[in-house]
Design brief:
With 392 residues, the protein is α+β, with helices and mostly antiparallel strands. The protein has two domains: 2-252, no CATH class; 261-377, MM3350-like (Structural Genomics Hypothetical 15.5 Kd Protein In mrcA-pckA Intergenic Region, Chain A, Roll). The protein is built from eleven helices and eleven strands. It has helices at 5-24, 38-45, 66-77, 99-102, 107-126, 135-144, 168-175, 204-216, 226-236, 244-252, 284-294; strands spanning 81-86, 90-95, 179-183, 197-202, 261-269, 272-279, 303-307, 314-317, 343-348, 354-365, 371-377. The strands form three sheets. Strands 8-7-9-10-5-6-11 form a seven-stranded antiparallel sheet, covered by helices on one side. It has a two-stranded antiparallel ribbon with strand order 1-2. Helix 8 (204-216) crosses helix 9. The chain is globular.
Length: 392
């Protein structure tokens, strides 16, 4: 659809600003979260054109720079960029194996792929965070608003209402040119308008996309299933681009086959330290058994592994937790794009809540068939401590 061509070209330029900044600057990356530091967020934001937050100083974290957060999520999600640990440089983002394939795409294809990741992955990633207030209300109002008219909030007619709380959805819609944000460049009369939004307006692209969504499924915004999302994305792609599906498949296919590396993990629980070496073809469920075996725990309880933070946070639950989307038996270690120095948590037994702190110590080329505990320091913690009757 040619309606999105200009928006696609603008989005491509904005993403290139992000990539250029990473390549030409020593970006401070948090070891705990993988997020950009506050100063880098502030500086990078100042270079954007479509969505440029009006903060006066570098005091906010990445969660309050939605464009940066989305670009990081998109890049990691598709393996366009990888977070790696370099001696003397700490954590850095470097080009991943999908970088060349992504740059073979036309702007409209990049736009469609980014929208697919936004609606099919990123939207779910921050849906339950406190800073995503007003999401369903915003989307519903956007559908009903006419082109070039201000989008209001609930029964509040003041267009500056959108500056009184932080809405990632608002920023993402602006990034894809579904709306335009009219910012305040001076201090607002209303002190509650701390994000300096004067008003937002629906665009022609916004009208086109919401109409397409309604044709596919009236409840698209809230529950975009895979088939509906695919239908939407390929409505955006011009009909003459007949090889887009193959291009997308090359980007979405696995970058490497499991079994090509072995991984050394360091595990800490209380004063006990264990090191485990295993092949990257093993699942997280198998790693959970090795961890428990290393401290002589039984395996009768539920658990989960937690990686990352914010929108990059992923939890992989025991297979018995059937209602959970991600389970530990369905992901192998190679798929996690681990790097040396990565820290994550293994939470075992939701009653007693044992917290195991896990670090990727080394990633070594070469296949390893099984797993072994290579280092044992400190006594095993007591899984079921005995209590005196007086303590009860």
């Amino acid at each position: 659809m040619n309606q999105f061509q200009n928006a696609a070209e603008e989005l491509e330029k904005e993403y290139q600003i992000f990539l250029d900044y990473i390549e030409t600057n020593e970006v401070m990356i948090s070891k705990a979260t993988g997020h950009f530091g506050k100063k880098d967020c502030f500086e990078l934001n100042s270079r954007f054109h479509i969505v440029k937050e009006r903060y006066k100083k570098a005091g906010r974290t990445q969660e309050y720079y939605t464009v940066i957060d989305f670009f990081v999520f998109f890049s990691v999600y598709l393996d366009i960029l990888r977070l790696v640990s370099k001696k003397g440089a700490g954590l850095i983002y470097e080009k991943g194996p999908k970088y060349p394939s992504f740059y073979e795409l036309y702007p409209i294809e990049k736009y469609a792929l980014m929208m697919w990741v936004w609606l099919g992955g990123y939207e779910d990633a921050f849906r339950n965070f406190s800073f995503s207030a007003g999401s369903s209300e915003f989307y519903e109002k956007l559908r009903k608003t006419k082109v070039n008219e201000p989008v209001t909030y609930s029964y509040v007619k003041d267009p500056q209402i959108w500056g009184k709380f932080y809405s990632p959805q608002l920023r993402l819609c602006a990034l894809f040119r579904l709306i335009t944000i009219e910012w305040l460049d001076e201090e607002p009369v209303d002190p509650e308008n701390k994000f300096l939004v004067n008003a937002i307006y629906k665009t022609e692209e916004g009208a086109c996309l919401t109409a397409l969504m309604d044709e596919i499924d009236e409840d698209f915004w809230n529950y975009p299933d895979d088939d509906s999302l695919s239908d939407l994305i390929f409505e955006i792609i011009p009909e003459e681009m007949t090889d887009t599906d193959l291009k997308f498949q090359r980007i979405l296919e696995k970058s490497a086959e499991p079994g090509e590396h072995s991984i050394e993990f360091q595990i800490r629980v209380g004063s006990a330290v264990r090191e485990i070496k295993t092949g990257d073809q093993h699942t997280l469920e198998e790693l959970h058994y090795e961890i428990l075996k290393s401290v002589n725990f039984d395996s009768d309880h539920l658990y989960y592994f937690q990686f990352g933070s914010g929108t990059l946070r992923q939890k992989y639950y025991a297979p018995e937790c059937r209602d959970m989307e991600l389970t530990a038996d369905e992901v192998v270690l190679e798929e996690l794009t681990l790097y040396e120095g990565l820290n994550f948590e293994f939470i075992y037994d939701f009653g007693d809540s044992w917290h195991f702190h896990v670090m990727v110590k080394r990633i070594i080329p070469g296949h390893m068939e099984g797993s072994e505990t290579t280092v044992v320091k400190g006594a095993n913690p007591e899984q079921y401590p005995s209590y005196d009757e007086e303590e009860w």
